[in-house]
Amino acid sequence: MLWQPLQWWGTFFLLGLINLPLTLFLFKPFHGKGYIFSRIIGLFLSSFVLWFFSALHIVSFAKTFIWIVPLLLLAGNGLLVYFQKDYFSKINYKKFLTRAAVTEALFAAGFLFWVFVRGHKPDMEYNLEKFMDLGFIMSILRSDYMPAADMWYAGNAINYYYFGHFMCAVFIRMAGVAPEIGFNLWIATLYGFMLACTFSITSSLMERFAPAKPARGFIAGGVSAVMMAFGSNLHTFFEGFLGSVIRDKDYYEGYFYPNATRYVGYDDAHHFLPSLTDNDKCIHEFPFYSAIVADLHAHFIDILLVFTAVALIIAFAARVLENLDAYDWRKTPREAPLLALLLGGMYIANAWDFPVYGMLLGIVLWAVHIKKYGMCFKAFWTAVVDTAISAAAGFLLMFPFHINFKNIAGGIGSGIPRLAITLPDRFFILYGHFLFASILLMWLLYKLYRKQHERAEAEPPALVKRFGEFKETVSGIAGWIAPADMVAVCMAIAAIILILLPEFVYVRDIYEDGFPRANTMFKLTYQGYILFTLTMGYAVLRARAISKIIKIKKRYTLFLVLAVCLPLLYAIPKPFGGSAIDDHYHLANEYRGMDGLQYMAEAYPGDYQAVRWFNEHVEGSPVVLTANGNTYTEYGHINMATGLPTVANSRTHVWLWHGDVAAYDRRVADVAAVYQSPDAEGTKRLLNKYNVEYIVIGAMEREKFTASLNAEKLYGLGEIVFEAEGTQVIKVNR
Questions:
Q1: Which pLDDT does position 83 carry in this prediction?
Q2: Which SS3 state, helix, strand or coil, does residue 120 take?
Q3: How far apart are CA 152 and CA 19, in angstroms?
């Protein structure tokens, strides 16, 4: 129904209005003064406060009036306006409203478009991560204190980076929609932010360089926004379309959109170069793919904090560089408290992003300090100190998370000894377009510097001749370069580091046998893709402008156009592209709405009605026993849809979160004994051992245990409190 997306959007709009003064104050040099980030900041601050006090068991999240923190933020923003009257009175509100309207229109367009797309296939698909994601949200919504109960491992709390899911749960309660609908509205919301935030960041960079030519900002922002919302790597063109022409004409007809994210280590028959090892299957996703598969997973939710942190770093750099003489690295800038909070939030939402954007902050600070102090040790160590303070503050502010969290990483490994490296053909197809645009921008900036430097000195030093000359050249470039160029180069350098790191090291985890660097490549290059895309529109327009100044032939223009257009083939219907959206959603089919549990009502009506009964009649997180099944199967769907914990389900997830596979396997044997054993007294002991309050006999239990299901024994252990279409819920006698 249309009213639910409108209600959702209206709630976000109100949350943004509440926090608009703070955003206007922090994003002074930004396009539209960072208007679109006001709603992210509002949600993040509200969620952090609610999480912090619930994690310390001071305030019950389930029983808290959800709007109490936004009301406090409203008061705080009112005080900010009062004490900064001079600043707010000087804002050009006509210009601000025009820019804000543009980003709002982009957000609304992206949001409503994805409501339309997602509505063609809103189901919680068990073969992806949706069961886990909705299960986390449901568990959080019914919990008094954080961390919430692990819905697949009774007696344990969620041992994962769940803060992004907590933010989703907070807003679902704010908007007052059902979680199974809110889940899909969240996917559409993230897509809307992909468009609007990318446009805002890239157009702001361009406008800092050319404030008198706002059209350039709109074009640059548009290029990056389209690439973020519809772009891929070069896989569709080279391995799909071109590969079918050169090698196998039937291959492209069978091209499947996930192929672009499962390339290194897969499908060796269609690679240009043979793999060095068959033990190196990798993942290299990007935001558009995340929107298509629609898992509300940690790395996807955290783009909210990622976009906001990048924008805040840019706002800080722009403000400081425009008045560099007054800058003192020992004084806390106005952006620092929120930036530290965002870094901390990233750690408990998607831990990989904490060092990634700490690194970006450090690179930008180092560049700023080189511009102020020159290429010297002081510039380096002051940048390190400032970065360390922000990162440490963010990490320490999240100390309630560390109290209950057990690290799931297994140390650092290297893929080099086992030849787990990306060969040149794969590397080019994944990142070639980004590297071309980024390196071209750096090369042209250097050429421009040399040209202008030659006018002042007859013999400029070479870039790398001796270390002293190198330092002199870097200091000279840093003192000369425009602030927007400096920030864009810093972002490109950070992105290059991110795509190179998985070639040397990886974080060890349970997937090391066969997928050693898959997760490391996935999480690092995902952020590299974002940073590359944010600079892409800027690089294209600046390259064109610089080429006119230094009067060189624009031989690279065609390649820049291809670097933008070829990744977009991923979304274009065949025979020209990958048809990613239609492959997954089949838009010619009937629109089904946003209810993620609709499939369950149709395929498992009894279990679905049991879910409704649990959600309406059961409070808290009592243990609800259901049949266990393998990860990425339909088992555990009642626990997923209610957030109520079962004794054991989803072995791989529990292995990843808790590590003790042997203990999990013992639980599986106990679950089988409860459902199958004729021993009533032994069954009672097992039910008491796991504090089971409800036993479900439904579709999955009858499928798993078939003729061996001892229903009569279970009936004698309690009272049937729900029964519909073959599904029964027994409340255990105590």
A1: 92
A2: coil
A3: 37
CA dist 238 → 226, 251, 327, 458 (Å): 21, 12, 48, 46
DSSP assignment string, 333-370 = PTTHHHHHHHHHHHHHH-TTHHHHHHHHHHHHHHHHHH
Q: Quote helix, strand, coil % in the chain, to nearest 5.
A: 65, 5, 30
What pLDDT sits at residue 297? 93
| Secondary structure E strands in 540-591 | none
| Side chain identity, residue 717 | L
Contact 410, 511 (CB under 8 A): no
Instruction: Round to whole Å and give the CA distance between 85 and 79.
Output: 10
Strands 692-697 and 623-625: parallel
Give the pLDDT of residue 422: 84
Q: Produce one character per residue of 604-628: b if its CB has 16 or more CB atoms within 10 Å, e if not.
A: bebbbbbbbbbbeebeebbbbbbbb
Beta-carbon neighbour count of residue 74 at 10 Å?
Answer: 16
- Supply φ then ψ for residue 29, to 5 degrees: -85, 15
Neighbours of 182 (CB within 10 A): 27
What tokens appear for 109 in the block? Answer: 């367009």
Task: State how far the Cα of 195 lies from the Cα of 200, in Å rounded to an integer.
Answer: 9
DSSP reduced 3-state for 423: coil
Give residue 71's pLDDT. 96
Q: Max Cα separation, the chain?
A: 97
Tokens of 303: 């783009």
| pLDDT for the residue 458 | 42
> Which residue is it, tokens 């240009």?
272
How many CB atoms within 10 Å of residue 319?
19
Residues 187, 291: contact at Cβ < 8 Å? yes
- Six-digit token string for 424: 């040149």
Q: Indicate if the alpha-carbon torsion angle 87, 92, 97, 99 is positive or negative.
A: negative
DSSP E strand boundaries for 302-413: 412-413
Helical H runs in 19-127? Answer: 20-26, 37-55, 68-83, 85-89, 93-118
Q: Is the peptide bond prior to 575 cis by the omega test (within 30 degrees of 0)?
A: yes
> How far apart are alpha carbons 591 and 346 in whole angstroms?
35
Compute the distance between CA of residue 672 and CA of residue 404 in angstroms, rounded to an integer.
30
Alpha-carbon gap, residue 581 to 289, rounded angstroms:
9
With tokens 């009649």, the residue in question is: 617
- Taking CA 629 as the corner, what is the angle to CA 624 and CA 635, rounded to the nearest 5 degrees? 60
Report the Cα 398 to chain-centroid distance in Å.
19
Q: Is 447 exposed, middle or buried (0-12, 13-18, 19+ CB in 10 A)?
A: middle
Mean pLDDT by 10 residues, the chain (734 residues): 87 95 91 91 97 96 92 96 91 88 95 96 90 96 95 94 97 96 97 97 86 81 96 89 68 77 78 73 93 95 97 92 83 91 96 96 94 88 94 95 84 74 89 95 89 58 56 77 91 97 87 84 96 96 87 82 93 78 90 93 95 96 94 93 96 88 93 93 94 95 89 92 94 90
Helix (H) or strand (E) holding 432: helix 424-456
Q: Alpha carbon of 210 to those of 128, 358, 462, 543: distances in Å? A: 45, 28, 29, 14
User: Which residues are within 8 A (CB) of 579 and not within 5 positions of it... i.e. 6 or more apart?
Assistant: 257, 571, 572, 573
Give the Cα separation of 618 and 334 in Å (integer).
Answer: 46
Other beta carbons within 10 angstroms of residue 30's beta carbon come to: 27
Amino acid 460: pLDDT: 47
Only one residue has tokens 């049949």, namely 627
Alpha helix (H) ranges present in 142-178? 163-175
Secondary structure element (H or E) that encloses residue 542, with its range = helix 518-550
Beta-sheet pairing, 727-732 with 506-507: unpaired
